[in-house]
């Protein structure tokens, strides 16, 4: 069984990872800070946006792939994938631009929803 929906979202999220990574590297070149954040708040915010993305996206995509393999409905896969996408974009944008704000918190909620949903789906399928 091919996991078509998850494959699309994996591609989209891989492409988003590139500018997040480049923004950190670019700031390092600008500031000549090679390790950690050197006290630079802009670099720190970019690093956290990149790290938070990297910490959360893979586990949701793994759970999504497992849920799709276990024949989760397409509407659920799309709803979860879009929720993750909007959530990660909101979270990263606010973190990079301002550091804190309501959209950042909403971004985390939109990230946790598919994490819980796909994780729950997988656990439920294991007990069928």
Automatic annotation (TrEMBL):
List the source organism.
Answer: Hylemonella gracilis str. Niagara R
Its localization reads: Membrane
- Name it: MAPEG family protein
Listed under GO cellular component are: membrane
Q: According to the entry, what is the taxonomic lineage of the organism? A: Bacteria, Pseudomonadati, Pseudomonadota, Betaproteobacteria, Burkholderiales
| Keywords tagged on the record | Membrane, Transmembrane, Transmembrane helix
Transmembrane intervals: 6-26, 76-97, 109-127
Q: Does the keyword Transmembrane apply?
A: yes
